[in-house]
């Protein structure tokens, strides 16, 4: 990752971006293309690319680059674009604070403590994994219990195999991908245990990573105890009832030397909280406009910092929009304000962005609460679209064009996903 000498760091930038993962890199490109002349990207890691650097499997870029890439290849494509746009990259550095006037405090081991003024700020810090402590699994605290993402880093970047007989709690995409990866490296994956009655990862990952490798998936099942002294020796698993209470009389023990935890991601939002940005209680990320601006003027957010995405392609699309919004705000070409507020309705858990306008085309990202097939997506009474199916583990992505809302003049618009027969009744 290119470095900056201390005297090259400007005292003011049009746009400062926190995070050099896929969201931050895309935002930097968007900001420059929107007219921002001086853009700075700050990241705590030594290399740009974020989590993509440890995702060596294929499946990235099919939507954005129209070809199948590995994670590092996808990151490299964007890094090349960032360098072509003459963006300043500051690695091995931490953003300590962003104050209401958008003065950014940066701490770097090589450059010391610096303060930079910004015309606009983009929060693109990504997300972190939930750990064992987040769900308080009873039992001892032996070695061999780790998150799926950490195991991926051990295997793909450090070259270490975390264990030989592995159980996986949770069916998030990283856990599914690591189930396959560990089998390919010679380990035995004894099973994936998911609390919900459905998988939480993409259907393609369930098929390609579990079914194709004969790895059992136990739905409505969870780990209720961890056993072991120095090293984990086994786990006790049990089915759960409709209220997710373990049926301990039906529990059984599974011998293993490793337990991977893949129970979801949490948007990294300490900076947003310190700024007083309004957060969505469902996604736990910032509430954003159609240009990805938060409730704090001049502060934008994108990627997994806002809500957890299935595909990095959608992260790039959303983040380039956020960067363009930040760049426009910094140079004084801000778009007209939104006039429509999206409200989650029947079977809709969350909607991002939270507001849109009737004047432009938007991509809206939805999460549902229940699987339905076939079904219909409805925006109030003004627009509806048939869908083959929806499942909680897969994001629904829909383009909303101005002609769909031509008879709607602003206000609240409730979004529903209902069974097909109910929509046509």
Task: Write a compact overview of the structure shown.
The chain is α/β, with parallel strands linked by helices and 425 residues long. It is built from nine helices and 27 strands. It folds into three domains: 6-128 and 266-331, FAD/NAD(P)-binding domain (3-Layer(bba) Sandwich); 131-263, FAD/NAD(P)-binding domain; 340-424, no CATH class.
Question: Can you offer a commentary on this structure?
Answer:
By secondary structure, the chain is α/β, with parallel strands linked by helices. 22% of the residues lie in helices and 32% in strands. The strands form 7 sheets. Strands 1, 2, 5, 6, 7, 8 and 19 form a 7-stranded mixed beta sheet that branches. A 5-stranded parallel beta sheet has the order 10-17-11-12-13. A hairpin with a 3-residue loop joins strand 7 and strand 8 (112-123). The protein is globular and about 65 Å long.
């Amino acid at each position: 990752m290119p470095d900056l000498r201390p005297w090259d760091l400007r005292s003011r930038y049009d746009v400062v971006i926190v995070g050099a993962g896929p969201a931050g890199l895309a935002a930097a490109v968007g900001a420059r293309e929107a007219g921002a002349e001086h853009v700075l990207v700050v990241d705590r890691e030594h290399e740009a690319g974020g989590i993509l650097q440890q995702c060596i499997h294929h499946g990235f870029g099919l939507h954005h680059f129209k070809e199948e890439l590995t994670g590092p290849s996808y990151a490299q494509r964007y890094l090349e674009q960032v360098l072509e746009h003459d963006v300043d990259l500051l690695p091995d550095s931490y953003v300590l604070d962003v104050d209401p006037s958008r003065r950014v405090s940066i701490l770097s081991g090589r450059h010391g403590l610096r303060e930079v003024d910004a015309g606009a700020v983009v929060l693109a810090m990504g997300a972190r994994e939930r750990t064992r402590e987040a769900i308080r699994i009873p039992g001892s605290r032996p070695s061999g219990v780790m998150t799926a993402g950490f195991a991926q880093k051990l295997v793909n970047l450090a070259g270490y195999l975390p264990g030989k007989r592995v159980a996986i709690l949770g069916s998030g995409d990283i856990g599914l991908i690591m189930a396959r990866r560990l089998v390919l490296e010679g380990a035995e994956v004894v099973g994936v245990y998911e609390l919900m009655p459905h998988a939480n990862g993409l259907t393609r990952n369930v098929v390609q990573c579990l079914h194709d490798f004969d790895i059992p998936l136990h739905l409505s099942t969870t780990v209720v105890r961890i056993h072991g002294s120095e090293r984990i020796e086994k786990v006790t698993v049990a089915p759960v009832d409709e209220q997710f209470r373990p049926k301990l009389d039906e529990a059984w023990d599974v011998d293993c030397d490793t337990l991977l935890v893949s129970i979801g991601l949490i948007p990294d939002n300490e900076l947003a909280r310190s700024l007083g940005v309004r957060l969505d209680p469902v996604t736990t990320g910032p509430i954003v406009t159609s240009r990805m601006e938060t409730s704090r003027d001049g502060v934008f957010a994108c990627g997994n910092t806002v809500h957890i995405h299935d595909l990095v392609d959608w992260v790039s699309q959303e983040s380039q929009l956020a960067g363009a919004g930040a760049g426009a705000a910094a140079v004084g070409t801000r778009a007209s304000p939104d006039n429509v507020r999206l409200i989650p309705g029947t079977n809709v858990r969350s909607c991002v962005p939270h507001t849109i306008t009737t004047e432009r085309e938007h991509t809206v990202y939805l999460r549902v609460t229940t699987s339905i097939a076939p079904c219909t997506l409805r925006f109030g009474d003004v627009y509806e679209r048939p869908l083959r199916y929806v499942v909680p583990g897969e994001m629904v992505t829909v383009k909303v064009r101005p002609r769909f809302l031509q008879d709607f003049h602003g206000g609240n618009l409730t979004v529903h996903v209902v069974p097909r027969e109910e929509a046509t009744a």
